[in-house]
Amino acid sequence: MFEESQTAARSLVDRIVGSARTANQATARMLVAVGDLYRLRLREVGDAAYAACDTVDAVSAEVAAALTISTPLARSHLRHAVVMQDRLPHVGSVFVAGNIDYFMFQTIVTRTSLVVDPAALAAVDAQIAAAASRWTTLSKRQLSARVDRIVARLDPDAVRRRKEAAERREIWVSDRLDGLSDIGGSLFTTAAHALDQRLNALAATVCEHDPRSRDQRRADAVEAVVAGADRMACRCDRMDCAAGGLTAGPVVVHVIAEQATIDGKVDSEGSLVGANGLLPHEVIAEVARSATLRPLTLPGDAAPEPGYIPSRQLADYVRCRDLTCRFPGCDRPAARTDIDHTVPYAAGGPTQASKLRC
């Protein structure tokens, strides 16, 4: 009975996998057809720039009507169809084969959109295509980081764009007519994530009866940051409020970089645990001026450690290696995960790097 059940389950899983691949292939073929339709209509009207713009609108409307979808969504399909054939043909082939889905393809398109050098784009396309089918379990954040690393290594304009973006960092405030103001801007990624964590920590210093939503508490926490406070005033109006002794804990962001990058000897990128993409070496150098630096020792073929709990040195290595939870699609930062044995410790699993994961 058990064997029959397992056989039936395997058959169902095979159907699920086959259906997913078929769906990927069908979506890719749809984009190929959209791209072919665009080229057909473009040949009908000529190659002038104004004709191309008009043809984008016309084909978007035609596709929207045929698929009974919105025109903006149809225009998005057209954009990705053109990229698949003109900019990323190798990645497009992986998509047509059903090895990646539309979500992955869209993410890859977005993260490579600034590459304009033809030789660099061809190299980026080839390297991503060679690896993409192994990235299907990655979250969007993890996938973005993989693509960004390839782009940073191969695109000669990446350094210039990073410097220009850093020079444009700013914070702006715009007053509204309802007693509120909008705040926006761009910061170094490390500072932005530190601020995000600080707002979360302050928002958690009130009791469960505070009437504000989490978003409202985070907004109000900005006032506490400005005032240099370590807690927010709870608005529960209860005499026995349990938040009286709560304070926001320290904020820590974890940056991983090579020592040579910190020393300014090489231009390799680093990683901010829990963030999308990479940290350019310019940001690493800026952060290193005031950060606490902790050397990371590679365990190599070191013998297993005694006991169930890994040493701090080994735990640091495992978390920096994994960056996030290893479960497919999970991008919880490794700093906020447990470290587990791949083989249960009680069953003889050793406490060493190759047998541990987040």
Give structural attributes:
single chain, 358 residues, mainly alpha, two-stranded antiparallel ribbon, 6% strand
Explain what the structure shows.
- The protein has 358 residues and is mainly alpha-helical.
- It has 4 domains: 2-163, no CATH class; 187-252, no CATH class; 254-293, no CATH class; 295-358, no CATH class.
- 53% of the residues lie in helices and 6% in strands.
- The protein has helices spanning 2-45, 49-67, 71-86, 89-96, 102-111, 118-132, 140-154, 158-167, 189-203, 214-227, 259-262, 281-288, 312-322, and strands at 170-175, 181-186, 255-256, 271-272, 340-341, 356-357.
- The strands form 3 sheets. It has a two-stranded antiparallel sheet with strand order 1-2. A two-stranded antiparallel ribbon has the order 3-4.
- A hairpin with a 5-residue loop joins strand 1 and strand 2.
- Helix 4 runs parallel beside helix 6 (118-132) and helix 5 (102-111) runs parallel beside helix 7 (140-154).
- It is globular.
- The model has no long low-confidence stretch (mean pLDDT 86).
